[in-house]
Design goal:
By secondary structure, this protein is mainly alpha-helical. The protein has helices at 4-20, 28-42, 47-73.
């Protein structure tokens, strides 16, 4: 049986990894999947169900929010007057 602290460790590691990468969303979805697997643990789900819940929730969260997250975190470079001088002497 997977102990509950494994899912807590997954959540904590995913959040720390997310905090270490401030610009790009990397692992917040794994934290959500870990939280759902932890909830499944508390409802008495067996190990296989917990792992399936983790992967399914993580995958659904990625597929549902990744395009939106990419669009919101992409930054366009604003050209300035000095950009016209690149490559000139």
């Amino acid at each position: 049986m997977i102990p509950f602290w494994v899912w807590i460790a997954v959540i904590v590691i995913a959040v720390i990894l997310e905090a270490a990468t401030p610009i790009d969303l990397v692992s917040i979805w794994a934290a959500l999947g870990g939280a759902c697997a932890l909830i499944a643990y508390f409802f008495g789900a067996n190990d296989l169900i917990q792992v399936i819940v983790f992967f399914v929730v993580t995958l659904i969260a990625i597929l549902a929010t990744r395009p939106l997250a990419k669009r919101l975190t992409s930054f366009d470079a604003t050209p300035t007057n000095s950009d016209r001088c690149i490559g000139k002497t």
